[in-house]
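Internal ticket #5521
Category: modeling
Description: The requester needs a full-assembly model to guide mutagenesis choices. All entity lines are attached below as received. Residue total reported by intake: 230.
Assigned to: D.W.
Attached entities:
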Amino acid sequence: KQEVTQIPAALSVPEGENLVLNCSFTDSAIYNLQWFRQDPGKGLTSLLLIQSSQREQTSGRLNASLDKSSGRSTLYIAASQPGDSATYLCAVRRVINTGANSKLTFGKGITLSVRP
Amino acid sequence: DAGVIQSPRHEVTEMGQEVTLRCKPISGHDYLFWYRQTMMRGLELLIYFNNNVPIDDSGMPEDRFSAKMPNASFSTLKIQPSEPRDSAVYFCASSLDSPYNEQFFGPGTRLTVL
């Protein structure tokens, strides 16, 4: 059974700092990995989607990397801003066989607070 | 596009009552997903549909939960009878063409069962 872990559960940093959020998963047979942002009381916003054949994806100040063999992904946020404060979740989708499901398995998220 | 729309945004009910949550996916999306989020268990997939047909309902916790998708623009998740342990935030999401594509989430319905 796939398990996704995100440690620490919460992180507080001063504005301007570059930071790395970690995600680990137990089963390396994944199809892709997705990073989401969740603001309080809101739904999830997709940030980056990395296919299993890719090593990284970039969008603006965000860079996500994937190392399937070690079961790890990182989300790098450059020059953090107070507006980056939110909960960041990673989710993995396993390799699909005919008739199987395509369930996304989520970590519990890292709540980030960027102090002005 | 308005994105995925869910209603109500908040629901407070008493144990034993029937609860119906509603979702309108993004127009043209073929896949619709229902998730539940709790502090203890995080986000869990309950069920998903492809072209209005349920594909995998293995995440539905028990027979008290049922989901339908009568057409491409509407889905419901029903809990009958509701119990306090059903209190959670329920999200609906949709995706285009494939369940492997990016999923777009609605704002969620926060359910409290007293």
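Resolution: model delivered.
Comment from assignee: The first strand of chain A starts at residue 4 and ends at 5.
Ticket closed.
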